[in-house]
């Protein structure tokens, strides 16, 4: 009976190669791998055609899925190679780390203790270093994937703590390297021969563990005790050749076995909780540091490269770089590649390395291919060094029901998960695209932000632009949202209803309504409208109401493109507009200038919305409101001016009334600032309009020309202030217009006399076709 | 003490080079005085096995120097690129001194640099008397470097006209210099290479043709990363200046150097060191080299006209001269800086007063 401890570095391609070679030589009958025993049943999937790394084991606490932990594996992870070996040689494989049931249990206990302690004594200093969200403290709706949670989870995966206390750094310094990482790479990962590597690793780590003063870490001790327990268990089961794959740091602790009783005592009475595991796809960018992720590796793409081509002297890598550059229209010749490889090798020789590592290759690329400019290096980093790649998980792997449903939809709608973003333009008139849009909107409602919606260019409300990019962390969101229902529709419905009933602001609920309608969940829409109605009734803030009106009107006006019944929305829009009309005049009094500006924007949007509704009654009451505002001397002048303008546009206030209103507001008795504000409101954004609208023009023109000389001089600064808001070309044209007698271009009357109706009618079918009516015969004859 | 104003690197650091050579067991590229490792040590500084201390010549990233040396070892030419005053010429001089023991094979690139000064010229008296013979040929530094297997240096490569620049292509790729007049050629001996420098600030320079660019590995020398690094550079260079100028003044106080470097860094980066206040940047580059010359200037003033100690008044004129390159724009920038930043610093009162008096 023999036990072989293989100390490795997680995601180390050299380690993976060594493990593979070692296992093939040793032919063990059982492999013990550092990892959570709860995931033992998942090991059977290793080697499955559809389980393609990078993948991760996701372990979570079913009653609070945010308490989760990932164990990622790439093709070049030693653990992955060990799993594959076990699978292909049909031998036993087991995970042997401290069960997560206990880890989570301990964390929960600590959190509970802390919460209790905090209640007892607010000022008491907390000794606990673990940072986990105590269960039940935050309602599920508020949960999100805090990165803190990730790092806390990832601490389990550590093997060589980085940071100043990185023990390997001591060895690296002794060897004359300035970085532990680089030393390890050159010592172990780039090595081609594997003579006695594991013994060397063991000796090195042993020396470190002996020499370095260390703080006693209970969790660490427990983990190692459990690993030893697993080894003993395997021995007891009479396995002959036991291979143990663990982080290098743990190797010495597993080699020398302390008394069995000590370990057992230590492991006695640990708290427990329920843990479930599943395989999820993972990405390289998640494997790297870039995601702000504790124990990542800096260069997954590069590791994959040296895993696949261990003997590459840089030629193959440089060829990849050159290919990438050429794709980006950067001229890169073969000579460039040759020179870069030579420089990299010269650098390696200068630094006494047997062959160039990533540093040397990067420096050579920078110097030869990029002419010293580091901008292109970012491209290499993204495309080659990290290389965004996503793994794949077979559909048969048992997953939570919501996940299954999502996968089913993804398959059905042909929306694959990708690590890089992909853009989709959906034509809502097509069934598949409509379904896709519905599906994506539902995910949005569930706060799974896989897709991002963009404004579509071009006309038409039947198009939607989406950008999809999958993030493995969505798996947690999905599990978490699983508590709301087993299908996307179900979960979205109950989740949104719950959120809506718990959030107070009208805007939020309206936003939800906006996304709920395209998600085609009528149950939600009803609840939300009800909720909006209640909130609107209770809201005293007319501005808040005004803010939501445009989006509601949009829904009721364009909702029918999506075949949604918009009548429901119509009702509340009407009642809300009524409410606004009643309280708006009061809201427009005593408003400071800077507060008036945003209000003007609201007026603008509101007016647009009203025009869009095309409901005479509503338009009427809106115009009445405007009249009140413009007539009320207490209204903020800028708003009053703007209201008058809107009335003028609607041809309600014309001729004498308008001139009167105009001169009253602009009379000299008014304080200049107020008059200026009024005019500013009145002429807001209408430089071009002033040029083209003869009536508006003549009114301003007449008013200016009838001013007395000294009064003109007094109001001149005010006019200047208003006109300075117009663009320079507009001002120039206005000036020209004044110069040429003030009449400007007169509109040419179009003659309607000699139209040839017959010829005109012949063109109509084509026009109808252009407008989308396929069957021109539907038209009445001779139209 | 001889009366040479400035010695070449290989003369000034002859002892260091000698010690490095003694302590150099590795394999040397042909015609190199030192192994590549030792060249890097010579530039970056360090302690030799026999306890001899090599002073650092370039303070900054060791990796950059390694790339530079490795480039020369692969017989690719080296292009040092960067802002004015980032030690390009300094590095090239020391590289040439350490590799060939000779930093004198130099061509200063100007708009008027002609093909004759890059390849070869003719001694017209001889040409008329003897006809085209080898004796009538005037060798250029490049030609000599090729024959002797040494490093030739070309300063400000981008100032040379494009047509003249391109004469380097044959030299760099075929390593030969044809002399059609004599129906012969000069073939480069091993060890020959070219270090060119160019700065990326000047406008109207002649961009290298891509054919020529391809023959160069580019190393961009950055402005110093940290405050401490920059102070270190200024202090070392000023001390060596004192030695050569035999100034009677006291050693420059590190405090004064720190203040100058602070002013230069703040103005260069357009933000105060604490990152709180945004500043306008003047038109000049405000490189480390200029900081060095300001301190040198101040030292000279203090030594010959002052009390021998470097103080704010001695430095003020130099600082203003370095910052205010444009009499209108930069002056405003400087005054703004003076009033908003310098004035508020309690311990900078003397600097403020000195600068105010001058302005």
TrEMBL record, chain A:
Q: Where is this region: Disordered?
A: 112-144
Task: Spell out the InterPro entries in the cross-references.
Answer: DUF5682, LolB
Short name of one Pfam family for this protein? DUF5682
- Composition-biased stretches, type Basic and acidic residues, lie in 119-128
**PANTHER family reported for this sequence:** OUTER MEMBRANE LOLAB LIPOPROTEIN INSERTION APPARATUS, PTHR30634:SF14
Name listed for the protein in its UniProt record: Uncharacterized protein
Source organism of the structure: Chitinophaga ginsengisegetis
Automatic annotation (TrEMBL), chain B:
Q: Which SUPFAM superfamilies match?
A: P-loop containing nucleoside triphosphate hydrolases (SSF52540)
Under the heading PANTHER family, the entry gives: MAGNESIUM-CHELATASE SUBUNIT CHLD, MOXR FAMILY PROTEIN
For this protein, the record's InterPro entries field holds: ATPase_dyneun-rel_AAA, CbbQ/NirQ/NorQ/GpvN, P-loop_NTPase
Name any one Pfam family assigned in the record: AAA_5
Per the UniProt entry, what species is this protein from, by scientific name? Chitinophaga ginsengisegetis
Q: What protein does this entry describe?
A: AAA domain (Dynein-related subfamily)
Example GO molecular function: ATP hydrolysis activity
Q: Where is the ATPase dynein-related AAA domain?
A: 78-216
